Amino acid sequence: MLKVKLVFQYIICLSVLVLQLQCTNTKDVNSEDLIDNNGKLQKITGKDISQIKYTEYVLSNPAEERTKDWQKFQNLLDQIEILKKGEVTFFKDDKAILQSFITDLKNEIPESLKATSIMVRLTVLETTLFKLDEILNFQSVTKQTILENIKDVLMAYNNLILQINKKVEKESQKIAKPQ
Q1: Fewer CB within a 10 Å sphere, N or C end of the chain?
Q2: What values do phi and psi take at 42, rounded to 5?
Q3: Would you list the DSSP string of 89-150?
Q4: pTM exceeds 0.85
Q5: Positive or negative torsion for Cα 136, 131, 71, 81
Q6: Contact, 118 vs 18, CB < 8 A?
Q7: Residue 3 — pLDDT band, cuts 50, 70, 90?
Q8: What is the Cα–Cα distance from 168 to 110, expressed in whole angstroms?
Q9: Residue 4 carries which DSSP code?
Q10: Do residues 63 and 165 touch, judged by C-beta distance below 8 A?
Q11: Cα 150 from chain centre
Q12: Other beta carbons within 10 Å of 104
């Protein structure tokens, strides 16, 4: 009876060990895109990001003039340029810092640019930034998933630039009203 009990305990311990090893192997398979053959973490590089296909817009001269005093927007421009180089630290840091940045970005918008179309684009950008923040903080996420979320951020940012350009262009048009 004692031998049967010892054999049974041995089988249970062996089963637990096999299950533990299987769980560890499953975790490695899920994150294989981020871990190379030597077990080292692969980084997102500027080259990876430069291969993302999206339409890129730049601010027109009049739009640039209107946004030059919008400090948080200038910081956003800088952070997007840093993101394009593969550095994601700003978007991975403490969520409270990101939340504060976005709140300030929205609150400090110049009156001349407060339009529904621009505010909506800011909200979309906010959503994609928070989504990227969440994805970057997961342990078992693939490199492809991170790149897809970076693409979403870049697209939302470029749509914001496009809307700012459109708003400034429309306001600069001199349309004579019939009398």
Answers
A1: C
A2: -85, 145
A3: HHHHS-HHHHHHHHHHHHHT--GGG--HHHHHHHHHHHHHHHHHHHHHT-SS--HHHHHHHH
A4: no
A5: positive
A6: no
A7: low
A8: 12
A9: H
A10: yes
A11: 5
A12: 13
Statement: residue 25 has pLDDT above 50: no
Number of Cβ within a 10 Å radius of residue 135: 19
DSSP state, 177?
A: P
Structure tokens at 10: 């041995």
Q: For 172, what's the count of Cα atoms within 13 Å in the CB-facing half-sphere?
A: 12
**Tokens encoding 125:** 């950008």
Task: Find out whether 168 and 57 touch, Cβ atoms under 8 Å.
Answer: no
Instruction: Report d(CA 73, CA 79) in Å as an integer.
Output: 10
User: CB burial class (10 A; 0-12, 13-18, 19+) of residue 81?
Assistant: exposed
Question: In the chain, what are the domain boundaries?
Answer: 1-30, 42-171
User: What DSSP state is assigned to residue 30?
Assistant: H
Average predicted confidence (pLDDT) for the chain: 82
Give the CA diameter of the chain: 107
Please give the Cα distance from 95 to 155 (Å, whole number): 21
The answer to whether 122 touches 109, Cβ cutoff 8 Å, is yes
